[in-house]
Amino acid sequence: MEVLYRSTRSNITPVKASEAILKGLSDDGGLFVPDHIPALEKSLKELSKMSYQEVAYEVMKLFLSDFTEDELKECIRKAYDEKFDTEVIAPLVEAEGAYYLELFHGATIAFKDMALSILPHLMITSARKNKIHNEIVILTATSGDTGKAALAGFAGVEGTKIIVFYPKNGVSPIQEKQMVTQKGDNTFVVGIHGNFDDAQTGVKKIFSDKELAKEMKEKGFQFSSANSINIGRLVPQIVYYVYAYVKLLQEEKIAEGEAINVVVPTGNFGNILAAFYAKNMGLPIAKLICASNDNKVLYDFFATGTYDRNREFVLTTSPSMDILISSNLERLIYRIAGNDAEKNAQLMSSLSGQGKYEITDEMKAGLADFYGNYANEAETAETIKKLYEDCGYVIDTHTAVAATVYDKYVKETGDNTKTVIASTASPFKFTRSVMDAIDHKYDAMGDFELVDELSKIANVTVPNAIEEIRSAEVIHNNICDADKMQQVVRDFLKL
């Protein structure tokens, strides 16, 4: 049965998957959601005998139902290749009673590679399918990881340009260096004076500017997004939760049908939403544990039913989660509102106007699958130190937020269900914070000295993504105020 995509904010005519991928955002400002969640067609046992690429096809074909088998398999083949430093693509590592799903073995050593390696291929295929001849302009806001992963995915891809906005002084030094050294005539990187929410809000405003869209069309351009608001980002993320489960099954760590818990360090809510979709496809997931840092807007939402972004924005050592407007939560709100676009639109209007909204008791009941908690900076650092000292395994700050919240969950509930923790970035991406957590004696070292020291103590080779930026030339020196973002776009596209 074909899956079509509806908007979360109005009852406009549903579109095919390829159209939703091309548009990124619905014309009414809403997000595209599948009109139903398809069930897995193969048994878990059958899936457990498959490679990552084969599992990807079995999951993605159900959501991207207007892609032919050849089209989708070709996209998967191009995405999950030698760009990843391990053939298994997403290995599981057992440490301290949990299974860490390492999602950072791609070209930019963060989980965004899992989806952004395939999105450019899905997008170009979608353009061909829909006879689009315009140049596609990817417009993205990043809290650190999406930016580089999107740049790496789209650099040099014919028929595309990519513009990335990031918060100047709001990402790690390694993250920034990865972005500003990006090669490719079709790439453009801009730091803004402001935080991630300012960047994301600015991008959404540009998307919804009808006059600009008309002007671009006349010049042969059209916008799309590489953020997790694009359904072409979200669908590939579902794959690795299915893969993690069937690998545990293959290794006889669990029995077929045995439920697991999943812990996800969460900022924009896309990664944990993908796990929720996997559960609704029939994957045996019991609890979805949503881990926040000091920007605990999601923890407060799960605790109270009120989403309130009117609070101090905290810069933490887990910057990819320094977010107060979790865009993908809208997809869940739409669902627990009974797929009521009008109700959802009212709540999002309240968020835009008053900075908050409150869901009903009936909607709260729809959140039963989720548990929320948060980790402060001291707890995050302590978790990194303890895990390293106990078993020699080094995790990054975001993964440490998840591990801390997992410990809190077990202590609070006594639930010892086998658990997968989404390990979203390599510790090499946040070297200073990680090494400082292990021992303050590393404070005096330079960024790349720390890289080499981390390699030594963790007994892990320095990833190529880090090696290649040691002496890379800075190409992008662009900075602007948040209210000048549209002008920057105009200038780049010579409108």
Walk me through this protein's architecture:
The longest helix has 20 residues. A six-stranded mixed sheet has the order 3-4-14-9-10-13, sandwiched between helices. It has a five-stranded parallel sheet with strand order 8-5-6-7-15, with helices on both faces. Helix 1 packs across helix 6. It is an alpha/beta fold and 495 residues long. The protein has a domain of 245 residues: Rossmann fold (3-Layer(aba) Sandwich). The N and C termini lie far apart (43 Å). Helices cover 44% and strands 15% of the residues.
Question: Helices and strands in order, then pairings?
Answer:
Blueprint: E1 5-7, H1 17-23, E2 32-34, H2 44-47, H3 52-63, H4 69-79, E3 92-95, E4 98-102, H5 112-116, H6 119-129, E5 135-141, H7 145-154, E6 160-167, H8 173-180, E7 187-193, H9 196-207, H10 210-218, E8 221-224, H11 231-250, E9 260-265, H12 270-280, E10 285-292, H13 297-304, E11 306-308, H14 329-336, H15 341-354, E12 356-358, H16 361-365, E13 370-374, H17 377-391, H18 397-413, E14 419-423, H19 431-438, H20 447-458, H21 464-467, E15 478-481, H22 485-493
Parallel strand pairs: 4-14, 5-6, 5-8, 6-7, 7-15, 9-10, 9-14, 10-13
Antiparallel strand pairs: 1-2, 3-4, 11-12
Question: What would you say about this model in short?
Answer:
The chain contains 22 helices and 15 strands.
